[in-house]
Amino acid sequence: MPSKRRVLVLSLDAIGPGMAGVAIRAVEVAQALAPHADVTLAAARRSGDVDLGLPVVDFDRHDGRSLARHLDGVDAVVCQPQWPLVARVLRRSAARLVYDLSGPDPLEMLELLAGAPAWRRRLITAATTDRVVQALRDGHHFTASTERQLDLWIGTVLGAGLLTPRAYAADPSFASRMALVPFGVPEEPPRRSAGPGLRGTVAGIEKGDEVILWNSVAWGWLDPDTAVEAIALLAPRRPRARLVFLSPADASRPAGIEGTHRARALAARRGLLGSSVLFHETWVPYAERGDWLLDADCAVACHTLHLETRFAFRTRYLDCLWAGLPLVCTQGDVLAERVEREDLGATVPPRDAAALAAALEQVLERGRDGYAAPLARAAERRRWSVVTRPLVELVLGDTRPPRLGDGVPRRPGHALRAAAYCAVKRLTPTA
Fold this sequence. Notes:
Layout: E1 6-15, H1 21-33, E2 38-46, E3 56-58, H2 64-68, E4 76-79, H3 84-92, E5 96-100, H4 105-112, H5 118-138, E6 141-144, H6 147-159, H7 165-170, E7 178-180, E8 210-214, H8 224-234, E9 241-245, H9 257-269, E10 277-279, H10 289-295, E11 298-301, H11 307-311, H12 315-323, E12 327-330, H13 334-341, E13 345-348, H14 353-381, H15 384-387, H16 389-396, H17 412-427
Parallel strand pairs: 1-2, 1-4, 2-3, 4-5, 5-6, 6-7, 8-9, 8-11, 9-10, 11-12, 12-13
Helix pairs in contact: 3-5, 4-5, 8-9, 8-14, 12-14
């Protein structure tokens, strides 16, 4: 009987009891691949010890040598675009490289750095784009969460000069290279643990209160302000409605600090802080998030309209499907379209607090039970074992297309930035 292939899955974000979307995806992908291959998860950071049912090793995202020792005998690597020194080690390995392009990082960076000095925005955005382009040059296969994202990355391939006649002739459809692997949900619905959950943890919630859950960090590309304004409008009609921000922002997740502070300050100005608007101050362990989702009456997610929105895949929406929690969200992304089309909650125009307040009231009136059936159907179609099937085929397949970057020189600016980065990192001790 042939031995299983060896697969290494990399996570650039912290693995442990408390995890954000990037780490959650890496963990779930690794666990979905585990029945088909010998899988090891490599973490650039840890948030504590956690038993994932598979081996976990460490690497330094800025030191290729730290990863090289984990690549011996590995048949395939599944990862996000990496920093240049790690990308170089991956490129020189014998492994099949499957790059996960499920997040539009360059577009997120443009939003995140909106208030930064122009030089810093240009430099960091260019470096982030370089990582994606280098992944497209080096990878054998690529995954994305939506058809829109696939179109974005094919356009990037074209713009980077990588769509050569040879690459096109090998597969005019690119179906052997690119596959849809969206974020998924666990196989079984959540069950309450012995923990206190949301209602037993967050001060200010009493029996009979209606909990509206913001089940994410208030990332810089989101719009928590409109949610707070909507609660200000809703409170006179539904005085027991409580908006709860689930996840705090701290130095380990700086992208959410500004949005969290802004929402807190707005709630204070509106006289809602500590009464109708509540902030949970510690990170909810990933394994306990089900208790919080089951304790809520509905969820809310707001964003403004920009390119990040168009190409995003809001991963925390999937937790709502998993837990049978109706969602009220802003229009403009592909999952919002599904919420409206599949009757999973309600959608509203961006920055329209009055429309959001009305939609929240409508969903609260109908109640969780009124949305249970469509939410359960949506979750069933998005189980991790279902959505990762194309990835399993890529990892275990016999066909390995040539790299798109073979024979295509890097653009001068890209090469210069990569050389400067490598020179600096070789002189700077890694953390």
